[in-house]
Amino acid sequence: MGNVVLLGGSNSRLENGLQKGIREGIDKFNLQNNKNRQLSFFNFAVGATTHIQNFYTLKRERNKEIFENAELIITESNVNETIGNGDGRERINFNCIYRNLNWYYKELHVLKKKILVILLPTCHMWNDKVINAIHKKLALKFGFNCIDMQEYVDNYRLNEFIKSLDWAHVLQRIMCEFGKNIISNLESFKLSNSLHISNDNPKFIVCTPKEMELISGTLEENIAQNNVFYETTYQLKEGETILKFNQTFQGFTLIGIHTWNHTADTHAKLINYSSLEISNSKKSIVKETNALNTIVEVHSFFQLDGETFVKINHNQKEGREFYHLAQSWVRDSKRLPFCDLVAFFLASADGNYYEEVVDFNALRNENIEIPSGYNHNSVIPPIEVYKEIIDEYCLITDSRKLKPLRDQINALNAKLDSPPTKKQILEIQNLEWELKMKKLQTKKFAKDLKLKVNFDDLIPKTIVIDRNTARFRIHNHLSYKLGDAMIKNSKSLLGYIKMPFVLWAIVIVHKHQKQFNQSLKFPQLESYPDYKEAIKEKDCFTYKLGKAFIKANNTSFIGGGGGYIKLLFDIRKLVREFKQKKEKLSI
Asked: Which superkingdom is the protein from (predicted)?
């Protein structure tokens, strides 16, 4: 009985991708072999995490037996390191990646198992060449099996194809086939080389809050779980809980933090975040984590001493280390008043910390060749063939799918080119031009009279026609609009002077509305429930005043042909006469 262990990010977690192919490959393998040679599958992959999560998983005591009985350990993380290094806020430095990856690969090497390193396509984003070179150089050093999918993509010029879909995730169907191929080629993978490489790594331990000293507040113990993972969490509360590392951990370096914050808001797990402050006698760092099951590395060198405390602190700016998926900078982000902590990942002071100076720019251009016995690019499915099939399919089906849309466009173009439509467009353009001319005339009159008039204030707000009421239909009659404007502007001398301009604007806008409304089919006025009440609006002073004005003056006169002063006096006379009639009726 042997185990196949998968360590990676979201590409290894997607339901129908790599893990599905491995499971199907194992099922087939188990059917073909007798009961003495059966495989079990363990997938420890966590999305959006670098190799620190793979390393942490490897060193957890509860997983020790699984790794000891492993027949094949598959690891991938280069995509996530590329994102973490290239993200403008997170910016994991090369030295941190190089040190931790050396530690991780050396710990895998001492297991003397079949190790398969997968370099997924990164499509030349950010510093991917440096990241991939570090992985490849160490795979060569420790004698690991390697599949360089980026090299394959380059050879077949598939970068645009991969990038146009989702550069961070290969199509799940392709990855599924890839997983099947890995298991079917299980016998071709080699054990890590037998070269004597001493394990000069530090000692690595996982420290839970239960093993720390509670200085103040409470430490609430909870269970966090989903359909894959099960963890015990310890909740630190903001302003209350303070933890201290005890003497056992003095001198250790903090290299990773595991959190799983529980929130009821399942759709905002990336913008609900905690800020965990860890401080010693010399400095503080603040690590931000989201509401997912997350293991994040500590970027800077931070050593525990006798005065190392842990608490929630959202206000500390100095020493803050961002995580690209704990999006505290988003406008709607929410500070969690707690942190559900699982454990700290620590390295002892003694051991190789890889402090030598590495020329990463030179590494970027270094040509690293994996020996034929360890190079397994042949396991990659024929992606270039899949692309050809997809392109051919799209070429045929796209034209079919687009035909109805093209037909609609052609029909609309034909309608736009028809004489009735052209006539309507021309009339609208004429109305717009007429309105512009009235605006210029208004400005000239205002200038001659030395008045400060804002033309935009003269144009009445459009009354929206409501099909459900007769009252609004009546209010949209030109008579009502004119009468209403005359009454409102008859209350002052300035109003009388402005009134002709207002009336011009109303007539022009009404013409425009009338043309538009002709294309709409409204019910007969009598069919409205409020018809009897609405028809009374025609007998009101406002409506009759507007109607009388229309009768007394034709549209050309309103346009200015009869003289400005005469028009002003006619308006004033009409308003005065109607006011007198109204007073008599009230008596």
From this structure: Bacteria
Task: List Cβ neighbours of 260 (8 Å cut-off, separation of 6 or more).
Answer: 224, 231, 233, 292, 293, 294, 340, 342
Beta carbons of 147 and 116 less than 8 angstroms apart: yes
Q: For domain 204-347, give the CATH number.
A: 2.60.120.260
- As a whole number of angstroms, the distance between CA 225 and CA 293 comes to 9
Q: Which has the closest alpha carbon to 268: 201, 349, 350, 330?
A: 330
Query: If DSSP codes are grouped into helix, strand and coil, which group holds residue 204?
Result: strand
Confidence of residue 237 (pLDDT cuts 50, 70, 90): very high
Q: Which residues contact 529 (CB under 8 A, 6 or more apart)?
A: none
| Rounded average pLDDT over 325-337 | 92
In angstroms, the CA 487 to CA 579 distance is: 10
Name the strand (E) or helix (H) holding 102.
helix 94-109
- CA dist 437 and 443 (Å) reads 10
Query: Domain ranges in the chain?
Result: 2-195, 204-347, 386-417, 419-586
The three-class DSSP label of residue 542 is helix
- Mean pLDDT in residue range 207-217: 97
44-90 pLDDT, tens digit each: 999 999 999 999 999 999 999 999 999 999 999 999 999 999 999 99
| Tens-place pLDDT, residues 548-573 | 778 776 544 444 444 445 555 666 66
Confidence at residue 184, expressed as pLDDT on a 0 to 100 scale? 97
How confident is residue 528, by pLDDT bands cut at 50, 70 and 90? confident
Q: Nearest CA to 278 among 319, 309, 315, 316?
A: 309
User: Residue 363 has which token pair?
Assistant: 């590494």
Tell the residue number behind the tokens 């009598």, with chain if given: 526
pTM (predicted TM-score): 0.72
CATH number of 2-195: 3.40.50.1110
Buried b (16+ CB within 10 A) or exposed e, 438-468: bbeebeebbeeeeeebeeeebbbeeeeeeee
Is the pLDDT at 497 greater than 60? The verdict is yes
Three-class SS of residue 281?
Answer: coil
